[in-house]
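pasting for ref
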Amino acid sequence: MALSKSTIEFLKKSLTPDLQIFAKPEWGSQNHSHRELMRAELASVFADEKLHTSVSHCEGMGVVVASSSAIGVDVEVKARVEEKTVARVSSSEEVLAAPSPASLWSAKEAIFKALRSYNQPSVVSKISVGAWKNIDSHTETYRLLNPEIHGSPSENRGVVVHFQEHVYSFFVFPS
């Protein structure tokens, strides 16, 4: 399922007002030409703008985000994210505090991508995620808990949105 207008407005309000989101099922990894499709459509959108961008794709969905702030995005098929896999790259405290394994996994991936502008670690296990807050039955917020080791701003925020099949995570270091 693609993101609704109301979900996009919530993300802009929660993360950064200039957030741009493009999500399409045909950009999913099941389509062997998904990368070319994404590049072709987005080349004209971002041609003259100097924005931070992030890309993610999985079976059935591809997403691109852009902002004047450092940003990251991840989309995952929820059923593919297993607790034992997440536990290998997370502390026991992170696993216990997270709303779900898919939430934690996608949050770490989105933060990892946003850290390209700072001291991006070589592995996601160096990223500590927490301060989870449930907004409603399918939306949570989170924060990067250890920004100082990444040389990133302490001001940061993320949002996870769940749909039946996919989980999306968006993360920003606001300018």
